[in-house]
Design a protein that fits this description.
single chain; 188 residues; alpha/beta; Rossmann fold; 5-stranded parallel sheet; 4-stranded mixed sheet; 22% strand; globular
Length: 188
């Protein structure tokens, strides 16, 4: 039996990386692999534990078919290594930190994927973005505006599991693990 692709999406600053870090061990115990993305952000940049590559390296990997999924957002290129297809074929569940803007293309390639939309109160999100100090206020405002465009349509979309991360991270992890239990009604 093929594994399930779990496509975690949400606005920048919603806590996707914190959630993935906190859920890594319990997910591994359940046979779920968390994928390390390839990003055209320097390895020294603050943020997720991704493989940082130059734009030229990314283009080469993409041209060689190294990605199962790839997209551009916020001036960066993102790729999910092709290896996920092997893991899924072997029956492993695979969780990727995806893109809201690339959801339609991902659904076309993986029609049975589970979409998990990590949400957070807008005021909390603004504070998190300001605190991480990675972007200017103008860039943060642009991210918040982009989030508003996606949020309403995604929250109403069928087959999307909403996971609020405005409160304690431990609660969010517990809800994610519950959702991924076989037969869970919201995530079946």
């Amino acid at each position: 039996m093929a594994g399930r692709l779990i496509y975690l999406i949400g606005p920048s600053g919603s806590g996707k990386d914190s959630l993935l870090d906190a859920a890594r061990a319990p997910l591994a115990e359940r046979g779920c692999r968390i994928v390390r993305r390839v990003i055209t952000r320097s390895a020294e940049a603050v943020g997720e534990a991704a493989q940082g590559v130059s734009p030229a390296q990314f283009a080469t990997l993409q041209a060689e078919g190294g990605f199962a999924l790839s997209w551009q957002a916020n001036g960066l290129s993102y790729g999910i290594p092709r290896q996920i297809d092997d893991w899924l074929a072997a029956g492993d569940d695979v969780l990727v930190n995806g893109s809201r803007g690339h959801l339609a293309q991902t659904r076309a390639r993986y029609p049975t994927l589970l979409v998990v939309l990590l949400t957070v109160d807008q005021a909390v999100l603004r504070q998190r973005l300001l605190a991480r100090g990675r972007e200017s206020v103008a860039e943060i405002d642009a991210r918040l505006a982009r989030n508003a465009q996606f949020s309403d349509s995604l929250k109403a979309a069928p087959g999307v599991f909403l996971l609020d991360n405005s409160g304690p991270l431990a609660h969010t992890v517990a809800r994610l693990l519950d959702c991924l239990q076989p037969g869970h009604s919201a995530c079946a």
